[in-house]
């Protein structure tokens, strides 16, 4: 699937659509993504700032998605763990960017070449319109090569 098609589909995916989250870019090579969330009445918390769950949701699928698409079908990629730290109240429009470097992919390929698993932490900063960090999100991915299907029981 083309990245532009996936971006359009994800922009109407209910968890993003109903939180006001918009994917503004996914590169065709799946190495970069950018997401934005404007503040609305439906994504504000009791004190009038961005709801923390929406701040996390805007960052949630991207490291796994970019890694899966970049490594290809021969790998299993799962979210293993996540952390979020709220740095300052989020107001207005907030954005986050994801850049997956070839060096990270090479580390994953090398670490899983013999069938072992690899756990990798990614850090993402959510910024407000003034460039200040609103939240810091860490995601840990589990990566390993898929095992060849066993053919013929007892063979």
- Sheet-strand content, in percent, reads 25-35%
Shape: globular
- Number of helical elements: 5
Mean pLDDT: 93
Q: What is the terminal-to-terminal distance?
A: 37 Å
Helix coverage percent: 25-40%
CATH fold-level topology: Thiol Ester Dehydrase, Chain A
Q: In terms of structural class, how would the helical and strand content be classed?
A: alpha+beta
Q: Characterize the main sheet.
A: 6 strands, antiparallel
Number of domains: 1
Give the class-level CATH name.
Alpha Beta
CATH H level, superfamily name: Hotdog Thioesterase
If strands are numbered along the chain, what order do they take across the biggest sheet? 1-2-4-5-6-3
Helix-strand pattern, N to C? HHEEHHEEHEE
What's the architecture, going by CATH? Roll
Radius of gyration: 18 Å
Extract low-pLDDT stretches. 149-155
Say how many strands there are: 6
């Amino acid at each position: 699937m083309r990245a532009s098609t996936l971006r359009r589909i994800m922009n109407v995916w209910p968890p993003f659509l109903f939180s006001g989250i918009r994917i503004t870019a996914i590169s065709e090579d799946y190495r970069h993504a950018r997401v934005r969330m404007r503040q609305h009445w439906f994504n504000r918390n009791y004190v009038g700032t961005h709801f923390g769950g929406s701040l996390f949701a805007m960052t949630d699928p991207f490291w796994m998605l970019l890694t899966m698409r970049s490594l290809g079908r021969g790998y299993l990629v799962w979210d293993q763990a996540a952390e979020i730290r709220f740095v300052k109240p989020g107001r207005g429009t907030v954005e986050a960017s994801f850049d997956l470097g070839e060096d990270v992919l090479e580390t994953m390929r090398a670490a899983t070449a013999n069938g072992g698993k690899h756990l990798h932490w990614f850090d993402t900063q959510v910024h407000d319109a003034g460039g200040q960090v609103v939240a810091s999100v860490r995601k840990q991915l589990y990566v390993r090569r898929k095992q060849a299907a066993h053919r013929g029981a007892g063979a």
